[in-house]
Amino acid sequence: MSNVQPATGIHDMGGTDGWGRAPVPVPNEPVFEDRWQARAFALALLSMRLSGTNLDAFRHAMDRLDRADYLDDGYYGRWLHGAENLLYDSSIIAPGAVEARATNLSGGRVEEPPAPEPNKPDYAPTAAGSIRSVEAPQKYKVGDRVRAKTVEPAGHTRLPRYVMGHEGTVVIVEPAQLLPDTHAHFQGENAQWVYTVRFDSHELFGADAERFDLNIDLYEDYLEEAA
Asked: Which domains does the chain have, with CATH numbers?
């Protein structure tokens, strides 16, 4: 058994028990096993453009899926359900529209809800991509001992619950990047330094865990000095 706290959502499943062994990828396997997966991938990218949102908002759209929508339809099914959430959030389609179209395509007869007035966020990136230049000096350097903060995020975050409260060592200082916690909610880019922190498996999962090192990229806001 691990000492990891319960996940805040099905997406925050790292370090939790009961999932069995991870499948080993098949060498040279195709990017898409079925044609619908390629279409789901394209629709997910299109949904960000149509909804006027961004990659972090898309990740948050998947964070909010229930267990069935997150797992049962596989990886690209998760992308497809996340794309639906983005389109609902920006009122590009009405709730129930996807289900109505699916029913009608299968031979049923259901009246589709009328399309609402779009309500896209007032958002425009300051530059392409997620890497930015910042004037603030880096708070930590390679070799520093740090602790991942213990927080209860109100919305999106890239801080995994299984590292909260645990100590590690900075091994790489990455370029400054947009903070997903605010960027996903259109509350500012808040670019800051990112650090690759190395954790010992015994620190994270207890003395009975297999011994290995785990490197995790963490934003400066996620860290504090270790005692």
From this structure: 35-105 (no CATH), 145-225 (2.30.30.50)
